[in-house]
Input
Amino acid sequence: MVTHLCSSLVYFIFSFAWHYNSRDVILKITGNGKNYQESTMFSALFNFLKHNFKKPMLKHIIGHKNPDTDTICSSIAYQDFLNQRGTEAKAYTLGHLNNETKFIFDTFGIDDPEHIQELPKGSEIILIDHNEEVHSIENLKDLDIVEIIDHHRVKIETDKPISIYVEPLGSSCSIIAKKFFENGNGNGNSGVAFPTLSKATASLLISGIISDTLFFRSPTTTEVDKELVKKLNEVAHIEDLEKFSLDMFNAKSDLGDISTADLIKLDYKVYDFGKDTYGFGVMETTNKDFGLNRKEEIIEGLKEIKEGDNLKGVFFSIIDILNEESYTLSSGDEEAELFTKTFHSENNDGVMFVKGLISRKKQVVPKIQEYLRR
Ligand SMILES: [Mn+2]
Output
């Protein structure tokens, strides 16, 4: 920094002196020496200030809409990682935290990230846990994506080269945890600070992995996720992970007097399959009856979303975490048929039960995509 400042100062003095000496030559061209002389002086001064005192642009870390635990925890952990490496970055959320995330924040004493809907034009953003425009911030088109970290299917086009880290791991928190272990504690590249993994960040990363993999029950789980939780817990020291995961899932299932519209949108994503676009809401729960008892209103809600958002169909899956099975409702007969045919299930009075179907990302979306391609 000091060397840089000195060399810039020397450059400033030289460029100013050079412009001053060549004033006579310039005078003939501009016809007004005074103005020119002042403008060079100012532009040299401006460049000097710009190079040495320009505030680095803040990188805004953004997870997906209808945020879940993985999206929030990976955003906060990555903010910590980047800040420790000297990069100005801040995590935001595009919506309210769900009850599972709130439980985790209460347990570890973490503050909510700032809520935003949009960002000023030209802001630099890092997308975490998503890469599709429909899952992102409202005015994504006006923003400058500088990096993507994700574990979903890739569907994005950028107009310049950017850093992209996509790995088929169980969570985005797994990818951030890997970054800490690969770059931290003395393994970093020379000249860059080594991020230290704090107890709080390790706890958030474990929470995100447990949440997204349903504590290793989901078919999205990899051996890497299991290894990472072990290593992270050497720092986090969560005594009983099994009990902690049950507390998380029970917190997520405790939905109180939530409205039907909010229930459907709690964990809701829209997927474009080329010709047709469908909506998929999921409710991962240890209390499936909370959803099944409201079957009629939920189906009505799905129909409204289908109409309002001009979709081909909308599904809502009640996922029984502990028994690893699901009950899916749909917005109409045609989409119900698509679902029963794709998953070889039956439609029992509007409820389609499938044993072992618990992942929207790895099972539901790819299989429906495959079926529609036929
Ligand atoms: Mn995720």
Q: What stands out?
A: The longest helix spans residues 33-53. The mean pLDDT is 89. The CA atoms of residues 201 and 365 lie 31 Å apart. The pocket of manganese (II) ion is lined by residues 70-71, 129, 151, 171-172, 212 (CB under 6 Å).
